[in-house]
Specification:
CATH superfamily of the largest domain: P-loop containing nucleotide triphosphate hydrolases
Strand content: 5-15%
Oligomer: single chain
Structural class: alpha/beta
Shape: elongated
Largest sheet: 5 strands, parallel
Length: 487
């Protein structure tokens, strides 16, 4: 904190300080950022043309607003970054619990101090971080938590009657005066508490223990909520909703590439000791698992499939590859399709299932999502017609060929075994993918096999054993491939 700032009211006036409402302050700072081309919400991807412009409009219009969206859509992160639109620091009357403006105090403490000390009133400076207050709404939140309550001990020590404002222990909202007050999951807040919010927004007053208290607060109110919570757990009362200026809908990434950018940004991939090489097609496959889950009728779409799913799946897949690299002494950590199967707990734990999904089981659904994601990734990256080569691969399994891929196999050993499957490596080389290492080529070969599993042209069991497809017709007469390629 700078030491050259005014420390008394007289010095503050002499410096020419002029206070302004917090919404005007944020508006001016936002306009400055827009003019300079500065990033508004660093790290928030995929909202540049949808959510961000609506937030900008709400702030420029000096409106309170609410972000509506399913879980894992960066609502809380956006709200917290609003604090960057506040000034670096503002002056308050020293000792004020509600950030009293030295020129226009709202509390009795601030007014009394100003009357007693005049230009000698001591000044403190409050940084922008302290001017942002956030509360997670739960059904047990009380008016005392949000607005405040009478403190009998304070009354006794100060010799005040309970009706005196000086006996109040202020809640979170008054303490956010001249700043931002954010409420997450607003619909979970009890109706009577929402009434208190609405009343202080509209009239600037509230009753505490039956005593009317006038608090003309200067605050930006920002809320978040899940639209489904309106009926599942509660609702936003109409008077409060009517006084929220803008209702802004968030969303999941609309393009796979945007989702991959978010996952790469958020996932912890830089491990100690060994370099991590995540093939682009593996990252795409991870992202497509989430996209498929958001369309699957067996998954409860009202709950949503959080963007945290692909982040945790990729982290778990890399961890399984890291475990293999350490145990086998490999130089690089390269995740492959089998590592996604090892990361199934990161998928099943992120899905709420419908009745049909509950009957089938989360693990079965997760395996199907992985296979279907492999198929979509394969189709997006095939550069040349490879139908004949794929038929040769399928024919190998139809005629009795079995391929057992060990989770702990070294990449070069895996490639040696995979090369025994006719035309498999030819299909791998035809993919639009960077295959600079043995690990990447092995991962690409597993991708091809998993895509065929999705089409049910071959089968894969939980142990990584590839065999003849469950829906394939009996093979025609011809040479057989008895035995198992065990890798």
């Amino acid at each position: 904190m700078r030491t050259d700032r005014p420390r008394t009211l007289g010095a503050l006036k002499a410096a020419g300080y002029a206070s302004r409402p917090v919404k005007d302050e944020m508006r001016v700072n936002l306009l400055r950022k827009l003019a300079a081309g500065d990033p508004l919400f660093p790290g928030i991807l995929g909202y540049e043309d949808s959510v961000v412009p609506q937030i900008v409009n709400a702030v420029l219009a000096r409106q309170n607003f609410i972000l509506l969206g399913l879980r894992g859509q960066a609502k809380s992160r956006i709200v917290r970054q609003l604090a960057e639109l506040l000034d670096d620091a503002i002056p308050i009357i020293a000792g004020s619990e509600v950030n009293d403006d030295p020129l226009r105090p709202v509390s009795k403490y601030g007014r009394r101090t100003l009357e007693e000390r005049g230009d000698e009133t001591p000044i403190e400076w409050v940084g922008r971080e302290a001017r942002y207050i956030e509360k997670l709404a739960t059904p047990d939140v009380t008016i005392a938590d949000i607005i405040g309550d009478v403190d009998p001990i304070r009354a006794a020590r100060g010799g005040h009657v309970l009706a005196d404002e000086l006996t109040i222990h202020f809640g979170l909202l008054p303490r956010a005066n001249r700043g931002i007050f954010a409420v997450n999951e607003l619909a979970d807040l009890a109706g009577r508490i929402q009434v208190g919010l609405f009343n202080i927004m509209q009239e600037g007053d509230v009753q505490i223990k039956g005593y009317p208290v006038r608090l003309p607060l200067d605050v930006l109110l920002v809320f978040t909520a899940n639209p489904e919570d309106y009926t599942a757990r509660g609702k936003i009362i109409t008077p409060l909703k009517d006084r929220i200026g803008a209702e802004i809908m968030t969303h999941y990434p609309e393009e796979v590439e945007a989702g991959m950018d978010i996952t790469r940004q958020e996932a912890w991939l830089q491990r100690d000791g060994r370099p991590v090489e995540v093939p682009e097609f593996v990252a795409e496959m991870v992202e497509r698992v989430a996209f498929l889950a958001r369309r699957d009728k067996r998954v409860d779409q009202r709950s949503g499939v959080s963007q945290r799913m692909p982040i945790t799946v990729l982290e778990n897949a890399v961890s399984n590859a890291e475990r293999r690299a350490v145990m086998l002494g490999e130089e690089a950590v390269v995740p492959r399709v089998s590592d996604l199967h090892a990361a199934l707990p990161a998928i099943t734990g992120k899905m709420e299932l419908e009745y049909e999904g509950e009957l089938q089981g989360a693990t079965k659904i997760a395996r199907e999502l992985v296979s279907q994601a492999a198929l979509e990734t394969f189709e997006s990256r095939r550069r040349l017609p490879v139908d004949e080569q794929l038929d040769e691969i399928v024919d190998f399994f139809d005629r009795g060929g079995v391929l057992q891929l060990a989770d702990m196999a070294r990449a070069e050993a895996l490639l040696e075994g995979l090369s025994a499957v006719p035309s498999l490596m030819d299909v791998v080389e035809s993919l639009d993918a960077e295959l600079a290492s043995d690990g990447a080529r092995a991962a690409a070969a597993e991708l091809v096999l998993e895509a065929l599993v999705a089409e049910r042209r071959i089968s894969r069991n939980d142990a990584g054993r590839y065999t003849r497809g469950s829906r394939r017709p009996p093979p025609a007469a011809g040479p057989q491939f008895p035995g198992t390629l065990d890798v």
